[in-house]
């Protein structure tokens, strides 16, 4: 793990998590598991939501307007009551008690006053909002403390702002985080992180580009003595092609992980998006929600970015995906219903807010005693897939009629029906998503030999070409960088 991936841990979090690079997080554990039985593990994926709509930056036309817009967005974050929202999310986690949580958009907002307009680079250090510290503090207060097991820093950008007529610099840092419940029978033995080669690139000036980087975190752990690997990620929101290439890179990383595997994350893609990132990843992993809750839509996205609207969610983009001896027995949403809304006061004004613009997913998993390289009866899916890829090529996965029949034998009739429907629906030529110019990446991977694993496919027919507004924090930072640089060079 590089210093860039660890710097944002506060002193308190470092004391909680341990100073070793691999973290070696030790939580109560037992010896080798009885290989004749399965082990239960509860996991969650939770996007915390920034609380501001950064896409307003696309409308900026002058340096003064840029500063005002940054100031307005800063005030929007303040009005979103981060402390109260993190307490509400902590209550969700304390109630459902997942052993391992993959967190996305754990924002850190810092300021510098007086500001230098960002001329001196990333030097704002006065913390205004630290979503991670607020969340872990709130979890402590609920009596369900969690340890910070791994932090992956992604976007980090600083720009001039105008707040209460004062010129300051505002720095937004985005992080993806693994949390492990302190009293869970889980031991984390190692952690690592990687950055995708593919990134959204925004031209800034005549000869420079700003890369909106994203990546993934990995922990190696045991639950009740049974080994598993968990991966946490947040894929690109603003570009379908970049998101697809990141999914290809992530699939390569996952292929190099041997044994029980759990992927948590906001993929900004789901069953409604044909031949996209979700399809790439579920060609070799099973969708825990579909395994456990095929009768429910499971929509997780998206509320108003300012968290105060009445909008209903209509997409499922936050996922728990599993393979190799891991099967989902239950799944539920958190932060989805009207009862999750919180009532708070900000600067003397009453506000009713959603905890996040996303709902979270909590899944109960069984870690089986064996790893199957063919039809996996624990996941209700089939390992046999066909894939094509390479420079300028497509990356797709299909299930043949014979495969669907195997799935029917290996799982419940309901799961087999889902796989059978998907085998005929997922013709790459039918979907609007472009999968060209995707190639497997050489992104670093955490483990050794690949193992065959189960496939899962979408059975939803809705299509879409883009996912604007999903995960706005990172997606708009590149645009902001471009605006700032162009204005600086124009001398406006």
Automatic annotation (TrEMBL):
PROSITE patterns: TAT (PS51318). The keyword Signal does not apply. GO terms for cellular component: cytoplasm. Residues 81-358 form the Endonuclease/exonuclease/phosphatase domain. InterPro entries: Endo/exonu/phosph_ase_sf, Endo/exonuclease/phosphatase, TAT_signal, TDP2-like. Residues 383-476 are annotated as: Disordered. This is Endonuclease/exonuclease/phosphatase domain-containing protein. It comes from Halogeometricum borinquense.
């Amino acid at each position: 793990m590089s210093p860039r991936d660890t710097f944002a841990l506060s002193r308190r979090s470092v004391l909680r998590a341990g100073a070793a690079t691999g973290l070696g997080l030790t939580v109560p554990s037992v010896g080798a598991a009885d290989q004749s039985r399965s082990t239960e593990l509860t996991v969650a994926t939770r996007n915390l939501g920034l609380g501001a709509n950064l896409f307003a930056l696309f409308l900026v036309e002058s340096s003064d307007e840029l500063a005002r817009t940054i100031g307005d967005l800063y005030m929007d974050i303040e009005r979103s009551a981060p402390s109260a929202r993190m307490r509400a999310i902590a209550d969700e986690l304390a109630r459902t008690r997942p052993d391992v949580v993959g967190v996305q958009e754990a924002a850190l907002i810092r300021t510098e006053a007086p500001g230098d307009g960002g001329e001196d680079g990333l030097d704002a250090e006065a913390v205004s909002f630290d979503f991670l510290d607020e969340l872990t503090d709130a979890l402590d207060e609920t009596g369900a403390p969690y340890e910070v097991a791994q932090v992956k820093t992604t976007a980090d950008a600083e720009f001039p702002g105008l707040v209460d007529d004062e010129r300051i610099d505002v720095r937004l840092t985005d992080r993806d985080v693994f949390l492990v419940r302190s009293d869970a029978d889980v031991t984390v033995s190692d952690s690592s992180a990687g950055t995708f080669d593919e990134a959204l690139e925004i031209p800034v000036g005549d000869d420079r580009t700003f890369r909106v980087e994203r990546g993934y975190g990995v922990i190696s752990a045991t639950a009740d003595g049974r080994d598993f690997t968990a991966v946490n990620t947040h894929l690109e929101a603003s570009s379908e092609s970049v998101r697809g290439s990141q999914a290809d890179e992530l699939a390569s990383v996952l292929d190099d992980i041997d044994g029980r595997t759990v992927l948590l994350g906001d993929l900004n893609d789901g069953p409604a998006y044909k031949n996209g990132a979700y399809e790439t990843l579920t060609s070799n992993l099973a969708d825990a929600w579909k395994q456990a809750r095929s009768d429910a839509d499971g929509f997780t996205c998206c509320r108003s970015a300012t968290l105060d609207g009445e909008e209903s969610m209509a997409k499922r983009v936050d996922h728990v995906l599993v393979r190799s001896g891991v099967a989902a027995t239950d799944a539920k949403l958190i932060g989805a219903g009207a009862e999750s809304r919180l009532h708070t006061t900000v600067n003397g004004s009453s506000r009713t807010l959603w905890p996040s613009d996303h709902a979270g997913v909590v899944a109960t998993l069984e870690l089986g005693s064996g790893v199957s390289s063919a039809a996996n009866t624990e996941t209700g899916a089939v390992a046999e897939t066909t894939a094509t890829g390479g420079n300028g090529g497509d990356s797709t996965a299909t299930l043949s009629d014979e495969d669907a029949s195997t799935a029917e034998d290996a799982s419940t009739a309901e799961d087999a029906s889902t796989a059978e429907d998907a085998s005929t629906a997922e013709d790459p030529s039918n979907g609007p998503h472009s999968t060209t110019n995707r190639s497997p990446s050489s992104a670093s991977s955490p483990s050794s030999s690949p193992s065959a694993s189960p496939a899962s496919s979408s059975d939803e027919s809705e299509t879409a070409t883009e996912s604007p507004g999903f995960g706005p924090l990172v997606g708009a930072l590149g645009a902001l960088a471009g605006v700032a640089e162009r204005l600086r060079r124009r001398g406006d």
